[in-house]
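Saturday, quiet lab. Running sequence design on the structure tokens for the scaffold JK sent over.
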């Protein structure tokens, strides 16, 4: 790869922006990989192309035909996923990390292809429910239908999941019949662009179904309105800025935000050392801290443990963290790679220092780290950092997201206090309760549910098959209230429905029958 401007895929052609662009460096070596610029690209024409060419082509297809298109695109990626692994390594991803993004993304697209084939009608309209009688004489009724808007889907993604983030938004949009414009995050745009290239070269997608723009998207929102869908993943501050745009506030473009969150994990009082749940908790915390070097929106940031057991937990986690080998992805024994880049490392250091100011560091050092196979200063390496905060009223661990291998251990003394501490996160994507005590689990889950999009209960019964705290599943909702963005993605066909327009149609039963005679295949 040269240091040329990364090409965007617009109007069916790969085009480079102009100017110097933003430099994107290799996370391991600091070498400049590419530059990203959208200067000079005509985004207005891209929107027009999506509406005219992509939208028209997709609306021609039935749901099962769109599912087949999606499956073919996912299989093309599966065939060439080594290319994506190789590029991901340059962004700091170990093979385990890359699989989460690449295989996770492909798997999600395949699940959606299957849902689209089996769970949607052999047509283009979804009839949502039975007719509801609206008059005593039986001559007037109503029912809901879902149809494809005459719009486009614009997706704006975070840097940490360039493939999964793109595919989990592309899949429901495609099934719904909306053409997509992808705006990847600059630090990993080259990985998303390769995935689009692979799909494009496979010929699986109809023309205009997908476009990609590297760099900023000035003016794009001015072209969006009530038929369009904006899917955003990133920080809460960017979400707030985009949500305030007139495209959303005045013209009512649909806007879904997946933002950051101070996810928690709770160790139950029953989970004493020697019980499987104690080890499960420790293992999960270390996994969440180190996979993708903690650059996961769902990672455990706050670990709540019974006050009487916090020393033991701290020791056990510290012992596990001591075995983590930081270094270049692929180098001998390396289990955790660098952060995505040096600016990100500075952000994480600053955030982690704020959290640490509320307590003490149990493990790790913000200033130095031993690194295998690379130069610790040229690459964006950071040691995992476990902080302990005994004064749980301190705001820092509940408010500051250090988007790296950083977690905070905190004690709780009873379920009432625990409930308050969980709520201090102000809305999270994922929480977990590690306990075999069903009464405790019930109390905590029901109290925490209002603050979470997803809650994992982990115990010895489910551990072997559990997909883990940090892994969103396409069949289940991914999102969360409040700080987490207030959005919902995935959740099976819910995400497809969210891209469609729901219309209540009223009339005589005969008229309704004529309009809705295209029935769901599995109804
Ligand atoms: P970010 O700085 O908010 O950027 C997210 C995306 O927004 C990037 O593509 C960025 O593009 C774009 N963007 C920024 N300003 C924009 C503007 N004015 N108009 C249009 N697009 C704009 O977040 P990040 O640093 O990439 O990602 C880390 C954050 O994302 C963390 O806080 C993490 O918790 C969160 N996250 C959440 C989820 C989730 O599912 N909830 C998943 C992953 C990450 P550029 O890169 O070109 O600036």
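Result came back. Writing it out in full:
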């Amino acid at each position: 790869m040269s240091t040329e401007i990364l090409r965007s895929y617009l109007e069916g052609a790969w085009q480079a922006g102009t100017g110097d662009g933003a430099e994107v460096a290799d996370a391991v070596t600091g070498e400049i990989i590419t530059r990203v610029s959208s200067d000079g690209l005509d985004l207005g024409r891209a929107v027009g192309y999506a509406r005219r060419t992509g939208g028209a082509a997709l609306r021609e297809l039935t749901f099962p035909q769109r599912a087949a298109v999606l499956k073919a695109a996912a299989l093309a990626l599966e065939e060439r996923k080594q290319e994506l692994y190789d590029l991901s390594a340059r962004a700091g991803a170990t093979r385990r990390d890359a699989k989460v993004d690449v295989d996770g993304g492909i798997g999600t697209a395949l699940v959606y292809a299957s849902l689209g084939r089996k769970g949607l009608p052999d047509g283009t309209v979804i009839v949502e429910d039975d007719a509801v009688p609206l008059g005593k004489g039986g001559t007037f009724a109503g029912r809901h239908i879902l149809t494809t808007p005459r719009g486009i889907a614009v997706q704006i993604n975070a840097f940490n999941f360039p493939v999964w983030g793109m595919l989990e938004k592309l899949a429901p949009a495609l099934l719904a019949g909306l053409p997509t414009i992808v705006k990847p995050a600059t630090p990993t745009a080259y990985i998303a662009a390769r995935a689009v290239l692979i799909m494009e070269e496979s010929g699986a997608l109809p023309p205009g179904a997908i476009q990609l723009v590297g760099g900023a998207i000035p003016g794009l929102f001015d072209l969006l309105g009530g038929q369009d869908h904006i899917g955003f993943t990133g920080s809460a501050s960017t979400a707030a800025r985009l949500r305030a745009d007139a495209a959303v506030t005045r013209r009512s473009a649909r806007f879904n935000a997946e933002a950051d969150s101070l996810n928690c994990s709770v160790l139950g009082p029953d989970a004493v050392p020697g019980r499987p749940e104690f080890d499960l908790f420790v293992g999960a915390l270390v996994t969440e801290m180190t996979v993708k070097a903690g650059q996961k929106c769902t990672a455990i940031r706050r670990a709540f443990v019974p006050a009487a057991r916090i020393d033991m937990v701290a020791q056990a986690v510290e012992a596990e963290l001591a075995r983590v080998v930081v270094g270049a992805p692929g180098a001998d024994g390396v289990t955790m790679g660098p952060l995505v880049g040096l600016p990100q490392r500075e952000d994480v250091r600053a955030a982690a220092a704020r959290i640490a100011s509320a307590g003490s560091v149990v493990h790790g050092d913000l200033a130095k780290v031993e690194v295998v196979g690379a130069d610790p200063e040229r690459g964006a390496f950071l040691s995992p950092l476990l902080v302990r905060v005994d004064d749980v009223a301190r705001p820092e661990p509940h408010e500051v997201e250090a988007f790296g291998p950083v977690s905070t251990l905190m004690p709780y003394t009873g379920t009432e206090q625990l409930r308050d501490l969980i709520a201090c996160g102000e809305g999270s994507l994922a929480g977990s309760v590690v306990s075999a005590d069903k009464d405790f689990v019930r109390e905590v889950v029901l109290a925490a549910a209002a603050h979470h999009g997803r809650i994992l209960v982990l115990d010895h019964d489910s551990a072997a098959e559990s997909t883990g705290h940090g892994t969103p599943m396409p069949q289940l909702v991914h999102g969360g209230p409040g700080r987490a963005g207030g959005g919902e993605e995935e959740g099976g066909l819910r995400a497809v429905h969210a891209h469609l327009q729901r219309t209540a149609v009223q009339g005589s039963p005969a008229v309704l029958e004529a309009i809705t005679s295209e029935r769901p295949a599995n109804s």
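Notes for JK: The chain is about 35% helix and 20% strand. The chain has a mean pLDDT of 96. Ask whether to fix the surface positions before the next round.
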